Amino acid sequence: KENPTSLIVIFGATGDLAKRKLYQSLYRLYKNGSISKNFAVVGVARRPLTNEDFRANVAKSVNGAASGNADVEEFSSHFYYQPFDVTSSESYQQLKSLSSSLDQEYQTNGNRMFYLAMAPEFFGTIASNLKAEGLTDTTGFKRLVIEKPFGHSLPTAKELNEEIRGAFHESEIYRIDHYLGKEMVQNIEVIRFANALFEPLWNNRYISNIQITSSEVLGVEDRGRYYENSGALRDMVQNHMLQMVALLAMEPPIKLNPEEIRSEKVKVLRALRQIDQSEVDQYFVRGQYSAGMIEEERVPGYREENSVDPASNTETYVAGKLVIDNFRWAGVPIYIRTGKRMSSKSTKVVVQFKDIPMNLYYNRGEKVDPNLLVIHIQPDEGITLHLNAKKSGKDITTTPIKLDYSNNCIDGINTPEAYERLIFDAMRGDMTNFTHWDEVALSWSFIDQVSKAWESTTAEDFPNYEAGSVGPKKADELLKRDGFHWWNV
Ligand code: BG6
Q1: Predicted pLDDT of residue 54
Q2: DSSP annotation string for 387-400
Q3: What is an example of a GO molecular function annotated in this UniProt entry (predicted)?
Q4: Fewer beta carbons within 10 angstroms: which end of the chain, N or C?
């Protein structure tokens, strides 16, 4: 197949995401020959910039990523800038004529990808204007790539969806969840479905519980305004965490195509037990960080961050117990936890297998450890299998051992690799690693119950964990009640 080509219009071209991820990712795709040289990028944003200024910014973003940057200049010559007002017809008309001439100049076959990497309140306006002003009338494909947050609740997500569906068909909408672009998140499916060893055990007969942790050291940085309205539940759980749950719990798809994979994920989300607002405390724990020490530096508490209400009720930590009501998972809790200002940056999945039926090896009265399969998502990438073996010596007692596989990983944290894959997939029309509307809707309907319960009550104990710690104590009790504990392995 030929390398894909397109005109790419980036809304929010001066924004953080574009600067930190998108330009570098495009550069890598360009550099390793994944995309055709017939591409052009139009950056739009409010601020007035010339093409030259913009290209200089792009080159600056890219230089950090590039070793040997001889062709950075050639690369950035594909970039054009247009100051833009998302509500003005004139802006769209200008963009339309610039797009047509770039279609010609770069022979992009009329393919157009509109990437919305900006404030979500304008997503709907932009999509409908793109259609109304004729930018979507093109001879090639038209695709909308849209960043999170996709709505704030089910009703707002529906509203947004209707607005964009007026201009783009579901098969043209690429909703980004950057976790789906991560190497080891993509590996979940392969580990499960390419090994005779795991899939037969991947059910409630052999697995006792699954734990998914995504902890961050960073606080809310300069995103206080956004975060106050979002909190960890909407920021991480509605999307990234539930997507990982779906990948871990789905049935094997009959084929590895986007429709089949996404439809299996949808089934998991449909089987996810809805929690009633009145029961939220039995299933979820919320936390907020206070000031504390991180890497020997004192950092402020959440309530002292910029643009944060000094009496904020917003959670920066969530732990939850999810229940999937289907044959495979009945009786197997899936625990999730995610938080900011934790002691380490780490995302991993721990699958805990059931205890052996009878223990022959009491190690001085202690039980043998259960088998664990750990999928390290970041910063380490790899898998570890925790087993038991004979402890060397005269006595027949056991000792835990580990089988380790580590991807030869470049620092996986927030690297552009995830974006690189996702942009490439969007250009070649592979929707597998983008979220379908049905997934988004089901996730929100689950999350909405929890957020309604939390928003209607004040968290009296906030702040309830110190920056640099492992989170609130209550998160331990959540598992203890079921006879489990978090594995910090
Ligand atoms: C984003 C959230 O979606 O994911 C951020 O908005 C969070 O708050 C980030 O920091 C985490 O991504 P990663 O790739 O660093 O785990």
Answers
A1: 97
A2: EEEEPSSSS--EEE
A3: glucose-6-phosphate dehydrogenase activity
A4: N
